[in-house]
Amino acid sequence: MHLFDVYSIQQINITKAKGSYVWDETGQKYLDMYGGHAVISIGHLHDHWQKALKDQLDKIAFYSNSIIIRLQDELAQKLGEISVKEDYSLFLCNSGAEANENALKLASFHTGKKKVVTFSGGFHGRTSLAVAATDNPAIIAPVNYTGDIIRLPFNDEQALTECFAKHGTEICAVIIEGIQGVGGIYEAEPSFLQCIRTLCDQHGSVYIADSVQCGYGRSGSFFSHDIAGVNADIYTMAKGMGNGFPVAGIVVAPKFEAKKGMLGTTFGGNHLACVAAIGA
Ligand SMILES: Cc1ncc(COP(=O)(O)O)c(C=O)c1O
Questions:
Q1: Domain range enclosing 234
Q2: What whole-number distance in Å separates Cα of residue 148 and Cα of residue 105?
């Protein structure tokens, strides 16, 4: 069997990592300025992080979300404090795309509406609605297309205001990166984020802050959206959350009512993932 050849890869086989350095199979040492696709935020394999994962492996690695997992409560508590969103709730999953899927789904459940406003240059993942919301036709399969995505120019308050005037009763969510990552490093203007907040409030729509790449302490505030001085309704997170271990989540404002079974995942928030996130 061969690998399905979908990645444009560098011809380097990294076999070891420590702190800011990685080594290939020939022993060549590199200063890692890339962090494995923005996944490593504080350097590879810090001693306390490595030890916490090893200790957890000796106890239990995984159990499904059918039992109490106290590590999830500990992570939620810590995240609430560090992000200063103590009154928000946490739902855990496995990847950035999955976080955005869950955020969009929750927004639609909550509002009963289905149109999603997204922006030029935006990237939100490769799964069904997340990829439909992404501005890259090359990665959107015919099955992903939906008439419910409205793509507007980035940072254009007038276009956004006109869109809400026309479609406000149908818009369930606006999804936006605080700083676009894949699309190039373009910041959302604070006034644009404030405009999103105001229009979402006026029209009963949900403001989703895709913080998968720009969040988690990467911009000087915990979520880059904080710079605008407004709260989003849902923050999506992944990448640096587990410092390389696959873990993701959404942080949800108190106004959302959780109903049994409305969201769910097998692996999300497992013991090892929580320990990775707590240690990161
Ligand atoms: C802003 C943003 N959202 C979502 C995603 C998707 O994350 P994942 O690759 O973990 O599914 C990415 C990945 O690059 C991203 O940069």
A1: 47-279
A2: 13
Kindly state if the Cβ of 218 falls inside 6 Å of ligand 1: no
Ligand 1 center–CA 207 separation, angstroms: 18
Q: Is residue 107, in this structure, part of any structural domain at all? A: yes
- Summarised one tens digit per residue, pLDDT across range 227-278 is 999 999 999 999 999 999 999 999 999 999 999 999 999 999 999 999 999 9
Percent helix, strand and coil across the chain, each to the nearest 5: 35, 20, 45
Q: What is the pLDDT of residue 42?
A: 76
The pLDDT tens digits of the residues spanning 52-63 come to 999 999 999 999
What's the pTM value of the predicted model, to 2 decimals? 0.97
Q: Is the CB of 269 under 6 A from ligand 1?
A: no
121 lines ligand 1 (CB under 6 A): no
Domain count, the chain: 1
Q: How far apart are CA 194 and CA 187, in angstroms?
A: 14
